[in-house]
Amino acid sequence: MQRAKGANLITVRNIPPKLARTIRQKAAERRSSINRTVIHLLEESLGMGEKQAARGLYRDLDELAGAWSPQEAAEFEEALALQRGIDPDVWK
Description:
Strand content: under 5%
Shape: elongated
Order of helices and strands: HHHH
């Protein structure tokens, strides 16, 4: 087998079945090839993803975004509002 000039080839063997299924699912969700998906996942996990590099954002809580109902969000905001109050006796 001839290698393309400058190509960086890495072979990974013995991928656990659950991991292989998850990679395939991610590829299907992204409508991307398994190769591109694996590269994307590696870049993201190593902090080298385009979004992270460009903005320096953490993505570890993304799946929680939008998980609250409007009522839960309102209750949370109300609780925060109570905590944001300034006690004048403390700040004298």
